[in-house]
Amino acid sequence: MAVRRHRRARFHKKARISRESSEGDRSEFLAVRRQAPELDFDGSFPLSVTPFAVDLRYVIRLPFGWKFVLVLPYLFFWGYAGKPVVNHVLLKEKIFSVIENQGSPSREHEDEASSLVESPFLDENGPADEKLERCHPNNVLLKVFMYDLPPEFHFGLLGWDGGGKSVWPDIRTKVPNHPGGLNLQHSIEYWLTLDLLSSRFPDRSGPCSVVRVEDSREADVVFVPFFSSLSYNRHSKIKAHQRVSTNKLLQQKLVRFLTAQKEWKRSGGRDHIIMAHHPNSMLDARTKLWPCMFILADFGRYAPHVANVEKDIIAPYRHLIKTFVNDSSGFDDRPTLLYFQGAIYRKDGGSIRQELFYLLRNEKDVHFSFGSVGANGINNASRGMHSAKFCLNIAGDTPSSNRLFDAIASHCVPVIISDDIELPYEDVLDYSKFSIFVRTSDAIKKGFLIKLIRGVSQEAWTQMWQRLKEVEGYFEFQYPSKEDDAVQMIWQAVARKVPAIRLKVHKSRRFSQFNIRK
User: Fold this and answer.
1) Quick one: DSSP state of residue 106?
2) Which parts of the sequence belong to the Exostosin GT47 domain (predicted)?
3) Sheet-wide strand order for 413-417
4) What sign does the dihedral 344-349-355-359 (CA atoms) show?
5) Are 475 and 409 in contact (CB under 8 A)?
6) What are phi and psi of 313, to 5 degrees?
7) What pTM was estimated for this model as a whole?
8) What is the pLDDT of residues 431-488, one digit of tens each?
9) Domains and CATH numbers, the chain
10) What value, to the nearest 5°, has the Cα angle with vertex 127 and ends 126 and 130?
11) How far is CA 85 from its chain centroid?
12) What is the CA radius of gyration of the chain?
């Protein structure tokens, strides 16, 4: 429903402000109370835990000042008793957050923030002993079992060699380098695997949305660490001594391995995560492994039953241009109205680029030209996007491209002309707050697009520009990962799919409990 709502907002911007009522807060408190082992059935703390029993239902109704006075002695008491307050009594943080939030003003962009998955973790500035417990499997959003595939499927593709002694590199000592260049835009496999490998480090500095577990029966999902995009980019050509490319051989090996595993058989592959971000990756294996959850750039080259928005995840590209750090440029500081630089002549849905080129090439303050990563192309694009108010993101051979995420990193308001595009995290993120969507049929009408863009007021542009600076972190890949960056947002998107996966798996078992031979 959220995805459909945000899609409608692409072309019809309406203000939506959601406010939680006090009755909603009370319902949330009661739900948490039922989960907390420290609370008696009537809602009060037992005498064995507190110096005196207080019914929290009455505390909630008091003014904020009285709530603080009543709660403070409990904190001193537990601290004096030598029991960690957070670990012992505040195990469910919502018990006291409900009290605080009743007197708190609503957060800025409440309609966005309330949709995002609430972080279940402790404050990063908490005591050191609390940090060591943050990545315990019981405290995380998502528990993941990862296959120990041979290095040829992952870091071996980067040139790392464990010498037969280890499947995984010791990333505490040295993280294998990614080859960079154009390979970077489809590098989600690299960042997600690193995050999983580091998830059980006791001194981990990053957030703990996900943790790797050793027993697959404890896991929410099963992660397949095959760097399929890198395999396609570097090993899809048949070499002189080969009859089949290395990329194709690895896919064949992967299919044989996965379909033989008890984890795959247990769920029919429905709870398995396979990364295939490059549109041409996993070409040979995708139709054999399609019950899994794919992490993709878009659905442009997939049959609907193989990949779709209901079961799969759309992840962002890693942007190639430089992030606009300390951007204080205003409307008048960006002289270019509309910017596009890239391949103009494309096939399939990308033919619109050629049509727009002829419509816009003579417009003043519009930059529309051919460009590539060669000949200093990335640096030129960085300067161009940083000095433009609006940046065109037009469908190419596939519905998506890295250009959208380059625009976000540049704080250049994206103008998206791609009718079939699917966007990362759109169930929790409203792109219409920082992007302009134009239907292809409208964009190719003479004068329509340029009139639309020139009609955007300075105030409206500034609001979208400010929102871009707020959301840009959701699209940043890095190691170690940081709170709500691209890595964590992808894990959160996976976690939102888990209930649907469980439903499918449970339904598939309805008639398999007892088998009677005919």
Assistant:
1) P
2) 141-448
3) 366-370, 336-342, 388-394, 413-417, 436-437
4) negative
5) yes
6) -115, 135
7) 0.76
8) 999 999 999 999 999 999 999 999 999 999 999 999 999 999 999 999 999 999 999 9
9) 142-314 (no CATH), 331-475 (3.40.50.2000)
10) 90
11) 32
12) 26
